[in-house]
Every structure is written in C-alpha cells, then in structure tokens.
C-alpha cells in the first residue's frame, strides 16, 4: 500500500517515485470504480423503491400552476394554464392577478371577494361549476372575485388579501374557512407534504407577528429548480435529509381566532364588510364569530367527493352558492346593486 517492497533478506527497498505513483493511481482508480458502482446501485435502488418523499410532486399540474413565494410560501403563476388531476381532471387557467378567475372587469361594480383554500379555488371542478361562478350568474350587477389557493391556511389568506387588495378594492370580503384542516394549517410551518409556509406567533404581550419569512425552499422546489437534484435521486435523498434536519416542522398554539380578528380589522378598517363561510359547523369558531357580531353561514351537507380532500362536487358548489345568497343579501349585496 505504501509503494515500497520487501527484499528476500527482509530489507525494505524504496521503489522509484514513478512506480509508486502508478501504483497509487491504480489503487485510486479501483476505489473510485467501487464508489461509482455503489452510487449507481444506490441510485437504481432509490428509483425502484420510488419513495414518496423523493417524488417531484403528488399533484399533477402543480409545477406549472404554482411557484415558490418568499412571502406566502407558494403562489399561483400569472396567466398559467394546465390540467390538474385530483379525483377528476380539470382545466385551470390563472388570470393576470394569478387568480383562477376571469380577468378583472374595468367597470366599477359592488365587489365581493372570496378568500380560501382549495374549496374556493375549485379542486375537482371546472371553473364554471364553482360557487363563485354560479353567484356571478345570480348577481349580474355584482363583481365576484375568487381568490382561493389550494393548501392555504387563514394566515396565508390574510397575507394574500393584503397583497391583492388595491387591485380588487372589495366592498365585501368572505373568508371561507375549511373546518376540516384550517386550524392545523394555521398552527404549522409546512403544508401539502412538506411545502413551507409563514405562520403567526404570539410575542407574549398580546401582540403577534408572522414568522418563517422569507419562506425557505421545500424539497419540492429543489427538485424542480436544481438540475442535479431534479435528475439524480441520490441528490434528492441528500436534499430531503438536509431540509428535514435544518428546517424541521414547527407547531405553534392555534392562532385561528387571532387571524380572523386581524382579517376583520383589515377589512373593516378599509371600509368593507367582513363575512365568514364554514365548510361545516364548528362550535368553537361559531361562538367566537357570534360573540363579535361577525355574520356567518355553514355548508353542512353540501355534496362532496368521497376522497382526496372531500371537496365539493358541482352539486355541492350549487348548495354553497344557494346558502351564501341570504348572507350576501343581509350585507347589502343584491342582484340589482348599482355601481358605487
């Protein structure tokens, strides 16, 4: 191994430097070949095993429709179009404001803005089947804006509302609360299988602030944005381990009621009305809303698909639109509203 040799008499004879270098080179080539074989075998094993954590994304179309956002975690891509597959495959087109909606009209009308997650966005339904599009047909004198984004919690919806407010200038804002998972989403720094997001933390003196910003890259973002990680599963495994160690999951006390209060203060502070819709009844939140005089409605019984998040079917969206009408009417929104 050291490049020397032992003579018959037992003495150690130093080989010429050139010969020793050749031996060392051959040994290094053997080691490198063995290492390469091990790496290739590991790469093949990882591809065959096909670990979920090493896949690019489990929702076809996501990479085309959404991108990393340092403030929100992820955000829709303006003017992007793609097919999106959940329980069924639907066509998605984002407008210039990055919303899955029609382009904002130039004529000023009383405006109702809906913020929420995939239930608002229209997971598993075509755009024209959503409750917002059905309301648009029922209220032709009103501008209905759909600002739903899949996976968002109330914290991200609050931040998105602030971002798009000046472009929409709504008269009414309706927070559509996903009773099934929004509290969990609001209490964590990641969502959707490892995508990082901002989260609200209390400072202990009654104040609060958003943490986790700028939002770091998730492993999924590395998979798409880095060519080496995109093409080598060994690199994906290394990045996944790095992300899990350096950026672990964080949980905070549920800030939902605080977030709802912040959203209400923002909306009413800008002269608009604030309403809440609930996927289904939740005693805790409804008691909170009632105590503060925030009008709300629940959508229990709206037909939903039996898998992949239990999102509303087209018939479910029709039920939601029907139940929203009295809530909007009480807020002064009617089919005969005139531009303000």
Structure description:
This protein folds into 2 domains: 14-49; 62-330, Rossmann fold, CATH 3.40.50. Helices cover 40% and strands 18% of the residues. It contains 12 helices and 15 strands. Strand 5 and strand 6 (89-93) form a beta hairpin. Helix 4 (131-138) packs across helix 12 (314-330) and helix 5 packs parallel to helix 10 (256-269). The protein is elongated, with a radius of gyration of 28 Å. The relative contact order is 0.13. The mean pLDDT is 89.
What characteristics describe this protein?
2 domains, Rossmann fold, five-stranded parallel sheet, 18% strand
What is the element layout, followed by pairings?
Blueprint: E1 5-6, E2 12-13, H1 17-49, H2 62-65, E3 66-69, E4 73-76, E5 81-85, E6 89-93, E7 111-116, H3 118-121, H4 131-138, E8 143-148, H5 154-168, E9 172-177, H6 182-186, E10 190-191, E11 195-196, E12 199-202, E13 208-211, H7 219-225, H8 227-231, H9 233-246, H10 256-269, E14 273-278, H11 283-291, E15 296-298, H12 314-330
Parallel strand pairs: 7-8, 7-9, 9-14, 14-15
Antiparallel strand pairs: 1-2, 3-4, 5-6, 10-11, 12-13
Helix pairs in contact: 4-12, 5-10
